[in-house]
Write a structure and sequence with these properties.
Layout lengths: L8 H8 L47 E7 L8 H7 L2 H4 L2 E7 L4 H9 L5 E5 H4 L9 E8 L4 E4 L15 E4 L5 H12 L9 E4 L5 H7 L4 E4 L3 H9 L2 E5 L11 E6 H6 L1 H20 L1 H8 L8 H9 L9 H17 L9 H8 L7
Parallel strand pairs: 1-2, 6-7, 6-8
Antiparallel strand pairs: 3-10, 4-10, 5-8, 5-9
Helix pairs in contact: 2-10, 10-11, 11-12, 13-14
């Protein structure tokens, strides 16, 4: 039997009701990396987004109306409400409406392709495979790094990735970003994620119960579940996507409909810059950002939201060649675990799905 305290599904649901597994982000570190340690960011004094020195003129005329699709339970994309609350959209003469979207990724990409939405943030490892279908969507920047965690019970003999041979990992989605990311990490550690590790899918609130019963020995997820579960059950983090080269790769990306980029490039630049600037601001102002996001997470305190922001990788953003290279990095890794075919030309794929809006 697990060494952590016994819990029931009722208790787990009571702790986590009102939250979704896609929300918020990283736990396990005590503070975010300094901005000057992360490529593509200004200093804490400037709190500027990637390519912040680029002079962006707002579109002329009346405010340009746009629609941004986002998952309003996801703290990892808190830049979206911050952009409106702190006037970043208004700064670039944009009048933005929000659409709360929690459906399948291909549906979101279809909404962007057909003009039902103009822009959206999303997780890179959730978008890259569906983008092979040819949606008229371009990835234009990395919003932040760090969003996924691998946890074990207190007292577990599992201390590192190589200890997972012969073990079972609980995930919320067999085809989800954390499954793919930690499959990549295992492969890089010399463990075959297909033959040497088993994966089982559970609702997020049942992952600690699966650990307790011994059905799984490890779980992966993102905050707020990881943040709450680690604190409630004393779970121990053994890996995350803020290590090694992945600390400098965007976890969340910004996508725009292709027709917006082609027909109104100035507007495409403006909305991207507004979101990046808002993301940089919240990295430097986590307490106020937590208060701004609080209405979207009524069961979590603003103080806890601020702490989650501090331990996320919001001081990493990327655009242009740097962002292109991060997508190549992801594509190569996805080939290694069989998500992309081995013959895929990763650079050519990245050329097709990304757009550099800021190079002159």
């Amino acid at each position: 039997m697990s060494t952590f305290s016994r819990i029931s599904r009722r208790a787990a649901l009571t702790s986590l009701t009102g939250l979704t597994a896609a929300a918020f982000l990283p736990g396990g570190r005590t503070s975010a990396r300094a901005a000057d340690e992360m490529p593509g960011m200004g200093s804490h004094d400037t709190c500027a987004g990637a390519e912040g020195s680029t002079d962006i003129a707002p579109p002329a005329g009346p405010p340009r109306k746009l629609t941004v699709a986002w998952n309003e339970t996801a703290l990892c994309v808190a830049a979206i409400p911050v952009a409106r609350e702190k006037g970043f959209f208004a700064r670039y003469n944009l009048d933005v409406d929000y659409v709360n979207f929690g459906g399948a990724t291909d549906q979101l990409l279809e909404a962007l392709s057909t003009g039902k939405a103009d822009a959206a943030p999303g997780m890179a490892l959730r978008w890259l495979k569906p983008l092979q279908q040819g949606f008229d969507v371009k990835l234009v920047g990395g919003l932040h790094a760090g969003c996924m965690y691998m946890l074990v019970p207190p007292g577990s003999a599992i201390r590192q990735l190589t200890d997972l041979r012969g073990k079972t990992v609980g995930v919320t989605d067999i085809g989800g970003p954390d499954r793919n990311f930690f499959g990549i990490r295992l492969k890089q550690a010399g463990v075959d994620p297909e033959t040497e590790v088993q994966w089982r899918q559970y609702p997020a609130d049942l992952l600690p119960l699966a650990l307790q019963r011994g059905d799984v020995q490890v779980i992966t997820d993102s905050d707020p579940f990881t943040y709450v579960q680690k604190r409630q059950f004393g779970l121990v983090e053994i890996d995350n996507n803020m290590k090694d080269a992945w600390a400098h790769a965007a976890c969340c990306v910004i996508g725009l409909r292709g027709s917006l980029i082609r027909n109104e490039p100035q507007v495409a630049v403006a909305v991207t810059r507004a979101i990046l600037d808002a993301g940089a601001w919240l990295a430097c102002n986590p307490d106020e950002a937590g208060r701004i996001f609080k209405p979207y997470a009524p069961r979590v305190s603003a103080e806890d939201l601020a702490q989650m922001i501090r331990i996320e990788g919001h001081h990493h953003q990327s655009v242009g060649p740097k962002f292109h290279d991060e997508i190549v990095q992801y594509a190569n890794a996805l080939k290694d675990i069989g998500v992309f075919r081995p013959s895929l030309d990763s650079a050519r794929y990245a050329n097709r799905v990304t757009q550099d809006l800021f190079s002159t």
